[in-house]
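Notes to self, Riboflavin biosynthesis protein:
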Amino acid sequence: MINMSATDKIKLSNTIVTVGKFDGLHKGHEKLLSELTKKANGRRKVVLTFAAEPKDVLNNQTVKTIVTDEEKRLLCEKQGIDVYCSMPMTKEFLALEPDEFINEFLKKKLGATAIVCGPDFSFGNKGAGNVDYLKKNTEKYGYELYVIEKEKYHDKDISSTGIRSSIIEGRIEETNEMLDHPYSVIGKVEEGKKIGRTINFPTANILPAATKLLPPNGVYATRTNINGKSYRSITNVGINPTISENNPTKVETYVANFHGNLYGEVIEVSFYEFMRGERKFDDIEQLKKQITMDINDRIKMKI
Ligand SMILES: Cc1cc2nc3c(=O)[nH]c(=O)nc-3n(C[C@H](O)[C@H](O)[C@H](O)COP(=O)(O)O)c2cc1C
Ligand SMILES: Nc1ncnc2c1ncn2[C@@H]1O[C@H](COP(=O)(O)OP(=O)(O)OP(=O)(O)O)[C@@H](O)[C@H]1O
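result:
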């Protein structure tokens, strides 16, 4: 997959393009990407995506996202996308008129001869560009247009906004169904306080990106992918209140049946089920007892 920025001086030709935020790369987005493959007919498949949520840029604030930019890129690669083009989100870009956006970006830069989108796709200044606009102008600009129906979950359109609420409320199974893949955290294993190993539970610690949306603090049944191999695991998301105060939020995973050094390795922790909330115990002995019970419960689970 080619990785580029919309500000690069590259000119592509004969491509099929889809545009959006694609936060989470959910089941609806996956349907869109598989349509890209179906209609490609030899064209290169391009995803043009924003590096941040447009509404955050306008409000001058950051909203946490289901996937980081890096995770989104990896998911697009898995879906067989040929070119990943990220759009640095600026007020100038958001103010582009629909005509300029199509001419300057979709046609001149990306060489689009086909566009795939959902029925509510909008772009350009205050969302002035929409599916009607794209339909009316197919001949003027010279592209084929494919509009796909929205993918639903229990009769409601799947959307990144809905999935973000589901994560915030800790509904992991529902989140995973709407995503069509497990919610996960990908990151480099950092050194912790090394207390875990002294209580016989060595943990792989990830310090998630500040923009990564995490489920509520607590213990989750997870699976961890290490160098292409998937292991049963259990993960604490939180601040370790038993150990000390003011700790940063960490994603801490005990990987069953793994004995090795993970420092510096990039691992993927996939979440399946909430087990219990994070608690402050009176002492480390109590915490140790609870973690032993958690691991026993985890091992009995089918996942
Ligand atoms: C399954 C599991 C459950 C945990 N639950 C809690 C908890 O409820 N409260 C808490 O303070 N820490 C909890 N922890 C975090 C431990 O405090 C942490 O693993 C230990 O301090 C080791 O940290 P270190 O890797 O920085 O050495 C949990 C860890 C695991 C693996
Ligand atoms: N459920 C869905 N089924 C099919 N296509 C979808 C679905 N949701 C979004 N799309 C399409 O995917 C493209 C990118 O959508 P985008 O990520 O910007 O919106 P979204 O998933 O609805 O998120 P948000 O909740 O932030 O609006 C658009 O063409 C959009 O119409």
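- The mean pLDDT is 93.
- The first strand starts at residue 2 and ends at 5.
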